[in-house]
Amino acid sequence: MTALLERLGRIFIRFSEQTGLWFRMLWRTMVWGIKSPYEVREWSRQMVRVGVDSIPVVFLTTMFTGMVLALQTYTGFQRVHAENFVGSVVALAMLRELSPVLVGLMVTGRVGSSMAAEIGTMRVTEQLDALKALATDPVHYLFVPRVIAGILMLPFLVILGDALGIYGGYLVSVKLLGANPLVYEQNTFSFLHLNDLWSGLIKSAVFGLILTLTGCVRGYYTTGGAEGVGKATTNAVVSASLIILLSDFFLTKVLF
Amino acid sequence: MSEPKISLQHVYKSFNGKEVLRDLSIDISPGESLVIVGGSGTGKSVTLKHIIGLLQPDRGHVVVDNTDLCCMHAVELNAFRRRFGMAFQEGALFDSMSVFENIAFPLRRHTKMSEDEIRQRVEECLEDVHLHGVEKRRPSELSGGMRRRVGFARAISLKPEILLFDEPTTGLDPVISDVVADLIVEMDEKLNTTTVTITHDMKVAFKIADRVAMLYRGEIIEEGTPEEFQRSENSIVQQFIEGRAQGPLTEE
Ligand SMILES: Nc1ncnc2c1ncn2[C@@H]1O[C@H](COP(=O)(O)OP(=O)(O)OP(=O)(O)O)[C@@H](O)[C@H]1O
Ligand SMILES: [Mg+2]
Questions:
Q1: Where does residue B246 rank: exposed (0-12), middle (13-18), buried (19+ CB within 10 A)?
Q2: Contact B106 A134 (CB under 8 A)
Q3: Sign of the Cα pseudo-torsion (B73, B78, B81, B82, in order)
Q4: What does the pLDDT look like over B107-125, one tens digit per residue?
Q5: Which residue in A252, A132, A74 sits closest to B105, CA to CA?
Q6: Residues in B touching A130 (Cβ below 8 Å)
Q7: Ligand 1 center from residue B207 Cα (angstroms)
Q8: Does ligand 1 have an atom closer than 6 angstroms to the CB of B42?
Q9: How far apart are CA A93 and CA A231, in angstroms?
Q10: What's the CA gap between B160 and A102, in Å, rounded?
Q11: Contact A98, A69 (CB under 8 A)
Q12: φ, ψ dihedrals at B51, nearest 5°
């Protein structure tokens, strides 16, 4: 019994430590974010990495999710004779929830992990020390461009995901299930508020921050060679995904 | 005696309970060239990292230019490090960049030099370490000795006041070793740089040193000019200089 309590206590302490660390690094990133020199080249390189290079993944995930969503809701709604509202449901679900979360998780797997591995490798090969020795703070040079790229690029990916998801739903409904294209289109857009779009975009910017910062922090605190880098990478993906899903709930509550 | 440029005062450092530096004290005057020798794993690299603030002592002080490094804010310390150039034991080159970009990195970041001036300075630095036609290569495409020389070139590119070299000649052929040693002497004379060099190569040590210090079990056990050092009566020092397998160093 005491052993169990002790373990729980230790987990709790570790958890608080990690949370504290995360917010401290967030603070440091913000402090360094406003300082010159601005490495414009590095910023754009990271934006391409987070944004442009993620397009294929986002394309496939959101499109197919929109398609499946249409199929599933159709089956359900048919039973209550509400087939006409499939379009509304797909659009709402994509904009408010699925596109931001799916894009967040996919980009975490693709980019968050690679950032952790990259910075972790720099740690174990003393490149982070070398950066410092060249009077360059790693948070300034490495974290800031990555986090900015995350915050700026995720909303773009989500807009793309919104469009593709809605289009996927449209394809399935109209071509496969024989819905009336005009009615479907009308139902898709007539119930949407601007707020639906915004809440998804704000969420995604927060997710972009979370996944890049978590990747960077995990990499930064890597210890112990190649094995450590592997652990840091796994850790980055797991913890960023968890933080994204948790914060998703609270953000939804706040942004309704 | 003038104010020391670098002063380590009663520095203690342990890692996970294992004591590496134990009451280490040494002063380095401006323009001096100090060589630290010592067995593998005695904490030479750790000492060097304390001087530039990459590691903080558990106890004691590291004072550079009358400023205690431990009391500095991260942002201040970062700016303070512009006075330093450091070449790491394993090179620590940025492997996402080419050789050229590696050496140009501090120039781009800390000076307003034009692209042309930067190219010129990079060429100069590479010339200094006798490397040719490697600008476009990646660090992973270089040999260990070449990597070390690029690291050396990167450290001197800004012509800093203080140079720290962690085994700059290990793994280099004797001729290039001598070239690097000459270069250190030259920088010392021309720019009046304060240099701290770690090396196992006694020939290089005696060539570049104004003063040699031997680190043993976390302490400086002997220091003096190369002549004094060579004549030292300490049997540990003698064993080290001669590189014998038998003696107090290898006895436990
Ligand atoms: N970051 C670290 N974490 C834990 N232990 C460390 C760390 N850095 C150094 N050590 C330990 O400190 C001791 C001294 O290491 P250091 O790298 O200074 O040796 P050295 O004198 O430079 O040896 P060499 O000549 O082989 O380079 C070693 O026993 C090493 O295990
Ligand atoms: Mg060493």
A1: exposed
A2: yes
A3: negative
A4: 999 999 999 999 999 999 9
A5: A132
A6: 86, 88, 92-94, 151
A7: 26
A8: yes
A9: 34
A10: 50
A11: yes
A12: -65, -35
Nearest residue (by CA) to ligand 1, atom 10, is B15
Cross-chain Cβ contact B88/A134 below 8 Å = no
**What are the chain A neighbours of B154 within 8 Å (beta carbons)?**
134
With beta carbons under 8 A apart, name residues in chain A contacting B148.
none
- Residue B18 CB contacts under 8 Å (≥ 6 apart), including other chains: none
B247 pLDDT exceeds 90? no
Residue nearest to atom 22 of ligand 1 (CA): B45
Q: Determine the Cα angle at A115 with ends A221 and A48, to 5°.
A: 155
**Residue B66 near ligand 1, beta carbon < 6 Å:** no
Helices A144-171, A40-50: crossing angle, 10 deg rounding: 30
Contacts across the A-B interface (CB distance below 8 Å): 60
- DSSP characters over A87-108: HHHHHHHIIIIIHHHHHHHHHI
Q: Which two tokens stand for residue B83?
A: 């006075």
Residue B252: the pLDDT is 60
What is the Å distance from ligand 2's center to A150 Cα?
38
Best to test chain B binding among A126, A131, A229 (most B CBs inside 10 Å): A126
Q: Is residue B155 pLDDT above 80, yes or no?
A: yes
C-alpha to C-alpha distance for B108 and B101, rounded to whole angstroms: 9
| Residue B198 to residue A256: CA distance in whole angstroms | 62
Measured CA distances, A74 to A18, A164, B196 (Å): 44, 18, 75
* Cα angle for residues B198, B199, B203 (degrees, 5° grid): 135
Residues A247 and A204: beta-carbon distance below 8 Å: no
Phi, psi dihedrals of residue B211, rounded to the nearest 5°: -150, 140
The identity of residue B67, as a single letter, is T
- Find the A118 Cα to ligand 2 centroid distance in Å: 24
pLDDT band at residue A47, thresholds of 50, 70 and 90? very high
d(C-alpha A220, C-alpha A21), whole Å: 11
For residue A126, the chain B residue with the least C-alpha distance is B92
ipTM: 0.92
| CATH fold for the domain made of B6-250 | Rossmann fold (3.40.50)
What's the rounded Cα separation, in Å, for the pair B248 and B243?
A: 12
Interface test mutation site (partner B, options A132, A137, A143, A229, max chain B beta carbons within 10 A): A132
Residue B191 exposed, middle or buried by CB count within 10 Å (0-12, 13-18, 19+)? middle
